[in-house]
Design goal:
Number of strands: 27
Strand order of the largest sheet: 18-19-21-22-23-24-25-26
Shape: elongated
Bound molecules: ligand C2E, magnesium ion
Radius of gyration: 49 Å
Oligomer: single chain
Number of helices: 24
CATH class of the largest domain: Alpha Beta
CATH architecture of the largest domain: Alpha-Beta Barrel
Length: about 650
């Protein structure tokens, strides 16, 4: 071999393209190493290759079937003289890699366009350079509108700057971010999407592009919350179900425990629901249940949870219960409400009744399940007792609550039937011993029980608001009576009427007083209103205003039961008061109890510095009266002179003392 030939050989062995020489039949006459590598064969020489022998000038692509897998090669050939015979030299270039990546891109492009996920690609400066069809489908932004913009064009405003900062920090650090994000469509609609962002980096590690792929998951979210709703609600009434109730109770228990509050769980069962179902069919039954659900929710406050346990059982969780009676009242309202006749859409009138079992937190149970259990037990008892009633888990509570309920019904009837009476207790001038007025005190003349004292019913009346009707009645009655006494020529009297806190704060008391005075013709300066400290302290600013307006009418104002409540004399300066009534409890132990005597003496002295007249309540003995007189007390009332008596008897007392 000449040196030139040896060099040529070396060149042929070094180049990465394959070089072959084949004869006219395709037998290999020469091969370099690269050709053997491309065809993946060790000994090509002398073998016949399945390739076109004279592919021509223009490159031709062929498939390579190799042990290591499929490949592609590009061939170019030229005729050549080889050992005196006609042959072909063929250049072989392995184009497998390029082919693969070309196809990949084609496929990728197809995927890019056809995928249902929105895709956007940006340059390194985050300017959008490409979007796919789904991007437009989801966001409604066309290519023309999106290209060149920043992805922030989609921002919903629901995420703060910190959210985006963390997102980009993650992309910078890991090259990737994925999460749920709220974006905004072109029409302004905000929607949730599942977004994944990747940074594309070149060989040197520089970011060249960012690619974002996102799926609109608003549909998914909707079904998710729908599923969640279904799991926690009753499909018929859409009320919370047992599962949700339990979690609400648990939450309420936590709060009640923290705030030291009371809760009540009412379990309601419809009596005779089964009859409706059986006689009018399930559709009617369903309608009835829906009606009941509606009625119940209209009765409750926002903080109460009404739920349906299934069948004809409902529960009510009452928050903010101050006393057992509060729960009893709601139960009673529910029973009354559900007991009213109702019309179904099939024109059928039906009447059902309801039984209610009540358990209280913390008295009857500390856990949701316990409370539910006890309410259920109580419900069972209510049904056993004859249905259409409520029962507490504890028998004593049930008894007292039912008695109060009963009292309420009777009292209401008593007011309507005119069974209330006004009694008058003389108020006496300590120095002269003369009756200068009277306190009007309510009595209830019950046909069966006889005369019922106010302590039996005033608190129920206060709770139910019936006190307003009672208070208005006795005010009117007293003024009418007072006017009559004036007309009868009796000496001028001051008549005192008690005003309850409810009446004072929740009825427009000054209007009622003004009207009553006008209607009856009783002079304002002869009327005295007795208020308790609790009424004044509850809403102090409002109280001052009401008192000022009352005072402007000309009526006198007295503070009743002084010493049993807040008892701040300095505080009383804020109110335009005329009389201070020392509570009977300070008078009782005179002259045996030094402390009480000192307190009474102090109250008298201090009240005088505030220019208030002082009246001692419940004076029963001469010793008490003597002591009070020594202290300079102005007035008193008590059994020493007379208990409260009907008007005609009071009149006799007046006439008996004679004079004018
Ligand atoms: P009060 O306004 O402090 O009335 C004084 C109470 O003490 C009256 O009881 C009276 O009978 C009683 N009392 C008077 N002197 C003596 C005595 O020497 N010894 C004893 N042991 N008791 C005496 P009553 O009439 O039973 O009224 C009780 C409370 O009921 C009243 O206390 C008042 O808070 C309320 N009340 C009575 N009538 C009305 C009313 O028309 N409206 C309102 N809102 N409350 C009323
Ligand atoms: Mg009084
Ligand atoms: Mg009193």
């Amino acid at each position: 071999m000449t040196a030139a030939l040896a060099n040529l050989n070396l060149i042929l062995e070094t180049i990465t393209d394959g070089i072959l020489v084949v004869d006219r039949l395709g037998f290999v006459l020469y091969t370099n190493q690269s050709a053997e590598r491309i065809f993946d064969q060790d000994a090509l020489l002398g073998t016949k290759l399945a390739i076109p022998v004279s592919p021509g000038e223009t490159p031709q692509e062929i498939n390579l079937v190799r042990r290591s897998g499929l490949g592609w090669a590009e061939l170019r050939s030229a005729p050549i003289e080889w050992d005196d015979q006609r042959a072909y030299v063929i250049g072989v270039r392995d184009i497998t890699e390029r082919k693969l990546s070309d196809d990949y891109l084609l496929q990728a492009a197809a995927v890019f366009e056809s995928t249902r996920e929105g895709v956007l690609m940006t340059d390194a400066h985050k300017r959008i350079i490409r979007i796919n069809r789904a991007f437009t489908d989801i966001t409604s932004y066309t290519e023309a509108e999106a290209i060149g913009q920043l992805p922030s064009m989609l921002r919903s405003g629901r995420h703060d700057a910190k959210f985006y900062a963390e997102m980009w920090a993650s992309i910078l650090e890991t090259g990737h971010w994925q999460g749920e994000i709220w974006n905004r469509r072109k029409n302004g609609e905000v929607y949730p999407e599942l977004l994944s962002i990747s940074a594309v980096v070149d060989k040197s590690g520089e970011v060249t592009n960012y690619v974002g792929v996102f799926a609109d998951i608003s549909q998914l979210k909707a079904t998710e919350s729908q599923l969640d709703f279904l799991a926690h609600h009753d499909p018929l009434t859409h009320l919370p179900n047992r599962l949700l109730l339990l979690s609400r109770v648990e939450h309420a228990v936590e709060i009640a425990l923290r705030d030291g509050k009371m809760l009540a769980l009412l379990m309601i069962d419809l009596d005779r629901f089964k009859d409706v179902n059986d006689s009018f069919g399930h559709l009617a039954g369903d309608e009835l249940l829906q009606q009941v659900a509606k009625q119940l929710s209209s009765r409750l406050r926002g903080i109460d949870t009404l739920s349906r346990m299934g069948g004809d059982e409902f529960t009510v969780l009452l928050g903010n219960v101050v006393q057992p009676q509060d729960a009893a009242r709601v139960a009673n309202d529910i029973i009354t409400m559900l007991g009213e006749p109702r019309l179904l859409s099939n024109g059928q009138e039906v009447r059902i009744s309801a039984s209610v079992g009540i358990s209280l937190f913390p008295d009857h149970g500390m856990t949701p399940l316990e409370l539910l259990q006890q309410a259920d037990t109580a419900l069972y008892q209510a049904k056993a007792d004859g249905r259409g009633r409520f029962t507490f888990f504890s028998e004593a509570l049930t008894r007292s609550a039912r008695a109060r309920m009963d009292l309420e019904v009777r009292l209401r009837r008593a007011i309507e039937k005119g069974e209330l009476r006004a009694f008058y207790q003389p108020q006496v001038d300590v120095d002269t011993g003369r009756i200068i007025g009277a306190e009007a005190l309510i009595r209830w003349q019950d046909p069966d029980e006889g005369l019922i004292p106010p302590l039996r019913f005033i608190s129920v009346a206060e709770e139910t608001g019936l006190i307003t009707a009672i208070g208005n009645w006795i005010l009117k009655e007293t003024c009418v009576q007072g006017k009559r006494w004036i007309e009868a020529g009796l000496p001028p009297l001051t008549l005192a009427v008690n005003v309850s806190p409810h009446q004072f704060l929740r009825s427009n008391i000054e209007e009622i007083v003004a009207e009553t005075l006008a209607e009856t013709g009783f002079p304002a300066n002869r009327l005295e209103l007795e208020l308790t400290e609790s009424a004044l302290m509850k809403r102090e600013d409002e109280a001052i205003q009401i008192l000022n307006r009352l005072h402007a009418l000309g009526v006198r104002l007295a503070i009743d039961d002084f010493g049993t409540g807040y008892s701040s004399l300095a505080y009383l300066k804020l109110f335009p008061l005329d009389v201070l009534k020392i509570d009977k409890s300070f008078i009782d132990d005179i002259p045996h109890h030094r402390d009480d005597m000192e307190i009474a003496a102090t109250i008298v002295a201090m009240a005088h510095t505030l220019h208030l007249k002082v009246l001692a309540e419940g004076v029963e003995t001469k010793a008490q009266l003597d002591f009070l007189q020594a202290q300079g007390c102005d007035l008193y009332q008590g059994y020493l002179t007379s208990p409260p008596v009907p008007a005609d008897q009071f009149e006799k007392l007046l006439r008996a003392q004679g004079g004018g």
